[in-house]
Structures
1.
Amino acid sequence: MKLKKGVSTIVTVGVVVAAVIIVAGAFYLVPGLAPGSNTTTTATATATATATSTVISTGTVTSTVTTQKSTAPPTPHSMAVVLGGDETDLGFNYVAIQAADLIAQQYGWNVSITRDVQYSQQGSVITSLAQSGKYDLVWVVGNQFIGTTEAIANQSYKAGLKTYFAQTPSYWQKLTPNIVLLDQSFQVTGYYEAGVLAAKMTQTGSIGFIIGQWYPSQSMEFYAFVAGVNATNPSVKVYCTVAGTWSDATLGLQIAKTMIQNDHTDIIAQVADATGRGAFTAAQLYNATVPGTGAQVHVSVIGTVADQASLAPNNVMTSVLMNTTAFITAVVQHIDAGTWSQIGGQDLFMNLGSLSSYHNYSAVSSYTPYGIPASVQTYVSNIVAQVNAGTIKVQQEVTQNPPSGPV
């Protein structure tokens, strides 16, 4: 089953999630449940009073009496962040932690981060945070939480709790007004552009794509990447492997090695968090072989969510960035301004994907023969401009299962 829609089109995948929501709603809102792990840390920043934000004191003077009236600064808002991993992935969890730190520093929010929440614990962890009364916002980050977060928000709303919720990412569904979602299409444009670049740069005609787990957002990213490849060089094959986990770098290494040695892939894109770290190791250890000639060629990796060049400076061609900060900043600003009703109950469509710097690939030289030629950089820049202008429409394609062979 395939669903194709334009970049501004809502994609609804409801049957499975509906079942999850029913189960989550029935079992997760249990008073007194404690979080399943002790991985919560707190980052707090104190806001500086300014003439436009907080009045610390006012003074009134007469000829005979001086009075001083003091008002304490308002209590800062608080946010709990729930993650399925930690910052060591230098990816999805890493950029969420960066965004949370920015909220603490720039907006004066108290921020608590719970890392490495296992699937079996997610309901009790999110419920406990929501019921604690400590947090204005519970921000849940990760595909594995889809359905659970929405169900707990629903039950919290019915119970009269004042906590707001944000889920990154999810997809349109019937929502209570106390939750906002980031739509799963947030990175499709970045992956289309990465596909164009990869098709221009491959020497073997084979490209690999490693995914942690197959969710609608990963389906969209993969097929956007394939669309970019096909629009540039239809003869190039893209091999996709779903690891089934986001946290096994050894498995990621094995998958990448197989792609390089068996499928002749000389470029590997990865959307797999810690599992994807194995692809960077494989690219440093192995060369790809050009079919027919037997020539050995350099292997490159396309990072995900954050700029991952530091993981393998001579093997990271670029990364598809995710501007997570733009999403959570918009949510926080609405809470601060008292305008939550403008976003509550909505699935926000935000284009957060873009390509990072090319770093060591920014020029071809005797030291970097694998670099990106200036002509290719110009070509990709023109594609990016057309995507941003809406001239090129990136398709959103969702399939229940990944492809069984190269596409």
2.
Amino acid sequence: MAKSDLRTRISQFSTIPERQSDFTSTSFPALALPDIFLILNEVLLNAQTGEEIGLQLSTLARFVKIEHTLFSLPLIYTGALLAARGWISLRLALLMLVAATGARTVALALNRIIDREIDKRNPRTAIRELPAGRMKLPEAIAVLLAGLVLYFGSAELIGSFCLIWSPLPLAVFVFYPYMKRFTPLAHFGVGLGLAMAPLAGWVAVTQSLSNIIPGFVLGFFSMLWVAGFDIIYATLDEEFDRRENLYSMPSRLGKEKALRVSGYLHALAFVVLVYIFAVYIQSWLAAPLLALAGFLLYLEHAKASDVELAFFKINIVLGFVILAMVIVGVHFA
């Protein structure tokens, strides 16, 4: 493909719709796999020196926020270990890691691309790579396509059943950024996206939907937990969302009431976690980890004013505590 033709194909993405009603299956032009690698090559060739390459990689790392995979990874492995009732193979564990990285890259890239105009108007997010101009739209699309390659490639290697169902999380990733334009239930869209993680882990092991109820219960817990902490995160943009007529719970209910809703969601999430412990774990050796998970959910609200601590650090620890609880339960039932 000639460079001029390639640039024409890339430029077609500049009309990505900002409204859900504008989004159709024809909004994204089809790109063959060779096109993807040509786009990635075109992006990388823009850097002429080692310093520029380092700067570009730094920008890419900030854009992708690969560390956010730590939210979903424990949930994926929790679903997988509960399905296997024991350890999974190293090969499967690594493929799930690659799939999770690809999926997270796709989800974040879609969110940044779809919300780039809103981010430009928000003082808190105007410093992000796209609105600040440190990354061009074709480069962001190249990141998105690379994430898709990782995701679909690893899904195929895990099993054909996983590949068949792999578009489902992507549909959620496309839809939920638009939800805040018309409903305060947008936080549950984020929760639904992370709820796919334990279900994906379960299906990766079983290669079927049979006996998947424990996976759904884990997914329900994940949705309540994530929706609750997304409400806490949204308090950062309460005034901006109200001014822009965006439908976050803090902008619609006020910060105090929104945090109360978040607390109710996390209380219900803990009830679901107790049910998982009682029905699927059944090991008193895991009880201290259940108690620690409850304390971390409480601490998240006690420290809600420190969003970085509540949203990122506490939640990452909580995810791995739940994974540890399942590991102990599976091996010492």
3.
Amino acid sequence: MANLLYQTIEQISREKHIEPEVIVAAIEDAMIVAARKYYKTEEDLRAKFNPDSGQVEVFAVRPVVEEVTDPKKEFTLAEAKRFDPNVEVGGEIVIPKPTDVLGRIAAQTAKQVIMQKVREAERDTIYNEYNGRVGELVNCVVKRTEGPDVIVDLGRAEARMPKREQSRLETYNIGDRLRVVIRAVDRSAKGPQVIVSRADPILVQRLFEMEVPEIYDGTVQIRAAAREAGERTKIAVQSRDKDVDPVGACVGMKGMRVQSIIRELRGEKIDIIPYSEDTVQFAQKALSPAKVTRVQIIDPETRHLEVIVEDTQLSLAIGKKGQNVRLASKLIGWNVDIKSEEEKRQEIEAQMTALTAPGTPLSELKGVGPKTIERIEAHGVSSIEKLADMTPEQLTEIPGIGEKMVEKIQLSVAAYFQSLENPQPEGESLEALAEEETAEGAAEQADAAEETAEAADVAGENIEAPTEEEEVAAAAEAAAAQGQAGNAEPDAPVKDSDKHGNK
């Protein structure tokens, strides 16, 4: 019996790649759970596997204390003397618990605990083994399918290949042998923890390392790779030896090396491009097989490029459904805009027309008087478009224009652009024209009133208030003037003849 149990432990250890000590610890924990459930006790239970007899012995352990706080778990010294006369305070009393009385339910509980512990140990072993192998190329066999996912056998563990990690042009049957790359290891997954991929660009890099000795020994390096699985892959290679052609080394004699990789990828197209530190030159090579006329860097901070190609090369540069330019953008790490020569020429012509075309004169602006328009034109602004680009601070710098006038100008400019977006019907044009003439007259009067008010404000600011001495002097002058008027000679008396004549 002892040999049979120990042989079973060793067999499970070999199959699950778990240390025998881990399985023994699981059995001991299971026996403790089963004994506690059977005896319904709160005592501190311990179990020990005896390899000689093949039995798992269970003990209840109680410490010896001077004052008992929990009678179910502790012994006084007097009670402990009954089991061991030599025991002292601070020691422990070990009481054996029979295990042959454990029933079927307790045995089933022990079995479940053992299986759970073994599964946890197996998952820890798989995680520790494959976590450091992420990005490694491995061989596997298709075992089964679970919905859209494919479960493969790695030999020592199962792995899962989700739908997103599968090549779109491939179908997988049970028993197929595949080369996959380990994508990740998920410790919290319920099923297989290892995630493998057939769509990752690293798979192409690992296949080139196997087929090309120059890449394996480091003479040729793969600097970047972009892939759309099942359709096309672009890789950028660079040689550390000036005498070794990186593209030729990857292609091989008569294309034998790259053809082997294409067969492994089920006919996927592969573009091998020489890497360059110069972004412009690298972008020209990345868009092959299209011929690029020129490349211009638009914004280095946002990594934005503009590529110009001939009209006949535009569709080739873009590729099927934008595939070529999309892969090139991933490869160089820049945003790429492709334009034909004709599109670029039309764009430049439109820009030149916008620069040379005269703007709308300020006289078309409704609600602003002619005097205000003269001041604005004198400041160098001759069109409504230029006026719209000015800030309120710039407008207030124009002599004779205050904050109220700035608000009126802004409203008039906004109304002008709104009328361009929403033109009025012809039937309303006459009424609108009459309203505009009335508004222009009112605007001129308002401008004049505002100018008068602003001039008065300026004059009021320039006149200083009289001081107290000036007020006293003014009052003295007024009093002196009145005294002089009182001391003047009275008018001559009127003669009686004059009175009668006047009558």
4.
Amino acid sequence: MSVESKHKKGSRQRRSEMVHRVRTMPRLRSWRNILGTDFYKYFVPTGLVPGAIVVMICAIGVINSRAYVETQNPQTQMQFPEGLDYSKFQHNTQNHSRLPCLLCHRRDSNAAVPKRPGASNHLPCAGCHAQQFSNADSPLCTICHTDTKSGALKSFPRLRSFRMKFDHARHLNMGSVNCATCHRPARGGVALSIPAGFNAHTTCYRCHTPRAQSGGRDISSCGTCHQLGGYSRTPQFAQAFRVGFNHAKHGTLNCNECHQIRAGMPQRRQVTQPEPLNHHATGRGQSCMTCHDGKRTFGGDDFSVCKRCHTGDTWRF
């Protein structure tokens, strides 16, 4: 047999094997089952066989390319630009902000300090950052660790990138909650405390326990009270304290005798406060003069009792 005939025979054999592999491809078999005899009935008589074959090849290529992309590791698809700030974890990035809170902060207990992720082989963070975690010198490690070799962790960060939302009206309408549930005497009884930091969790978690429900809605996740945005804490130093007002000395009064709840208002304006004036009050709302009118209690034009309110250097005009 000549060399040329051997070459032709080998070429025919290779083409036969190639055709066999193509025919046995799973996706091509599915196309054959779909088309069946209709392919030959409509395409062969009209001479559209070459065009149909081209369309089929293109479709198979597109399907296989999509399947390839879908099976890629998320790390190979994500791009991490240079110059990122790795000194702290940023919740407001495009990828982080779309993740549910409970993916990272799982509440297995009612502890006030949230559980940080990563204890189990850096999961779930390693789902996207596997390549970075494989390098012990990666700047990513400095987000949580002060020393990557010893594994020393930073303290849990303070609330900065989240604002805290609270609806006084909704909670008071529950019936089982009142002002004293959250607000306790502070500064020797002069003021009332406003829950803040992890102390707030201690108070709130009495009702917002893990997997707690209210009206068919989960109220245990971080997102129940926190949203991305700036945080401005309600101050505890009211103007009334500067003219000698003391909550402890007014203990026989109910909170709603001086304060009203306004539903739908911004958080710092939900609870009204009396005007901290007596002799020069405007009269447009509640003030010290509402009670200290010389009839209900001392006040009015009786200036012999000034020192009962104006004592020491704690007051000023």
